[in-house]
Amino acid sequence: MTSPIYLIGARGCGKTTVGQALATALGYAFVDTDHHLQHVTQRSVAETVAAEGWQGFRLRESESLIAVSAPSTVVATGGGMVLAERNRHFMRQSGTVVYLNAGAGTLAARLQAFPHDAQRPTLTGRPIAEEIEQVLTERDALYQQTAHHVIDASHPPEKVVQQILDALSPARAV
Ligand code: ADP
Ligand code: MG
Predict the structure, then answer these.
(1) Is the CB of 160 under 6 A from ligand 1?
(2) What digits encode the pLDDT tens for the residues 12-36?
(3) Cα separation, 80 vs 1, whole angstroms
(4) Ligand 1 test: best mutation among 7, 111, 117, most atoms within 8 Å of CB?
(5) CATH architecture of the region 5-169
(6) Which ligand minimizes its atom distance to the CA of 21?
(7) What is the pTM of this model?
(8) What angle do CA 99, 131, 58 make, to 5 degrees?
(9) What is the pLDDT of residues 74-119, one digit of tens each?
(10) With CB atoms counted within 10 Å of each terminal CB, which end of the chain scores lower, N or C?
């Protein structure tokens, strides 16, 4: 299989961390839509949101998704990528979509332990754990319906990578 693999899920679920390790395991390239967007705009995500609003940011996010999509590539997507129907459709029809599913407690613990990895302004200005609960409530159904495979991402990264490899090649799983 050489079509792209898209990793979706909330901020902190491990799209970047697991995506890089998965790409290495498969001999695939790795790209991150947020990094692409930052390269194009020469701004941080927070700066783009401040300058262009969330709507402007979402448009650029869709453009980045299409721009980075390529064969033999693992694509880590922004947490809100699934909000737009066109993004969900594009990912499902052009590749394999993997949802890295983790609970709000796990996500909050990771983001609090590594606040520098929280690249985005909070959506609501409320405490991070509350915001994550709300975001998951709003988006979990979209992540689930977009994914070809739902993976338990609460495990250590190596185990998450192995679960994905097993899901991608069921015949070779043991
Ligand atoms: P995302 O790209 O989905 O926002 P990251 O890969 O940046 O998530 O991970 C967020 C933080 O959580 C990072 O500090 C990372 O080291 C940590 N992390 C990611 N995946 C795991 C995991 N499976 N187990 C423990 N910590 C993880
Ligand atoms: Mg990331």
Answers:
(1) yes
(2) 999 999 999 999 999 999 999 999 9
(3) 26
(4) 117
(5) 3-Layer(aba) Sandwich (3.40)
(6) 1
(7) 0.92
(8) 60
(9) 999 999 999 999 999 999 999 999 999 999 999 988 988 776 655 4
(10) C
